[in-house]
Amino acid sequence: MEPTVASRTALGAAAHRAAHQTLEGGRIFSDPLALAILGADAEPLIARITERLEGRRLRLFIAVRSRFAEDCASRTIHEGVRQIIVLGAGLDTFAYRLNALQGLRVFELDHPVSQRDKRRRLEEAGVSEPAHVAYIAHDFENGAMAPALIGAGFNPDRRSFIMWLGVTPYLAEDAVFGTLSELARFPAGVEIVFDYPNPVESIPDAAARAALEELARRVTELGEPFRCALDTEALHTRAQALGYIEVEDHDGGSLAARYLPDLEGMSLGRGGHVVRLATRGRPRSAAERHGDKRPART
Which of 133, 129, 90 is nearest to 111 (CA)? Predict the structure, then answer.
C-alpha cells in the first residue's frame, strides 16, 4: 500500500462485510458496526461491489472467514484467554463489539495511516474507543512486533489469540513465515486464525481461477498487489516445523458445508483457505524474562 494512503483493500473488505449485513441480513456473520464505520462511503461502496459478477461468492467468503475467526476467538475468551491481537486490523470491528471483561486487552496492529483513518471513522460514527483497545503501528516486513506489543502492555507470559484476516496475500512469503515464527516463540502459547490463497495455477476449477485472477487484477490497480500464495501441504509442514501442534485448515468447500448448508449449490470456490494454528506454551528462560524489561524501540 502507499505509505500516505489508508489501505484501499481494507476498505473493500469492510464494504463486503457491510454488504453481507444488508443483502443477507448478517445471517452468517453479524456485525452491527459494519455499516457505521464506513459512514458516507457505505452506499457507493456496496453498490460497486454488488455489481460484480463474482461479488456474492467473495462477500460470503469474507463473511465466513470472519465468522470462523470470531467463533475461535470467542471460544478462547470463554476458556480464559484475555489477550487478543488483531494483525492488520483495517476496519475490523471485533474489539468494539466485545464485552468489557476483567483483564481483557485487544491489541490492534496496522499501518499508522490506516489506523488514523479507522479512528476518524469510529469518531464520526459515534463509536467510542474502549479502554481495552491498544493501537500499535507495525510494518510486517520490517521488524519484530513483540517489543511494541510489550510496550503497550502485552504480557508474553499469558496465552493469546490472534486474528490475521485479509493480510497474507499482500506480504512477501518471508514476511508471512517470519510473523508465524515470531508468534510461535511467544512462551505462553498462541492460537491464530488467518486466510491465504493457493497459487492460481494449482486451482483446478476454471471459474475459481478466473475469479482469483480478476481479484488480483483489481487489487493491483489499487496499488496493493497480491504477493504471496501458499501451497496448503507445504504451509502445514512449515507451520508444524515452527512449533504449531494444531492445524485446522478449511477450503471453500468445507467452509460452505459448515456455514452455508441451506444455500444449496452455493460454492465459495477453491483456492481460498482459512486456517487455525495453535502452539503449546512452554516455561520461559531467565534470559527471556530479562529481555522483556528492555525498553521498546521508537
Answer: 90
Does residue 59 form part of some domain?
yes
What is the rounded CA–CA span in Å between residue 94 and residue 84? 10
Report the domain count for the chain: 1
Q: How far apart are CA 147 and CA 226, in angstroms?
A: 28
Q: pLDDT (tens digit, 9 = 90+) per residue, 33-62?
A: 999 999 999 999 999 888 775 678 889 999
CATH of the domain at 158: 3.40.50.150
CA distance 265 to 226: 29
> Is there a domain that residue 1 lies in?
no
Q: What is the 3-state secondary structure (H, E, C) of 53-117?
A: CCHHHHHHHHHHHHHHHHHHHHHHHHCCCCEEEEECCCCCCHHHCCCCCCCCEEEEEECHHHHHH
Rounded to a whole number of angstroms, the distance between the first and last alpha carbons of the chain is 22
Q: Among all chains, which residue has been given the C-alpha cell 509442514?
A: 237
**Do the domain assignments include residue 3?**
no
From CA 293, how far away is CA 20, in angstroms rounded? 45
CA 165 centroid distance within chain? 2
Ranges assigned E (strand) in the chain:
83-87, 105-110, 133-137, 160-164, 190-197, 244-251, 272-279
DSSP helix/strand/coil, 13: helix
pLDDT digits (tens, 9 = 90+) for 217-270: 989 998 999 999 999 999 999 999 999 999 999 998 899 889 987 765 556 766
pTM of the complete model beyond 0.85? yes
Tell me how far apart the alpha carbons of residues 275 and 41 are, in angstroms, rounded to a whole number: 31
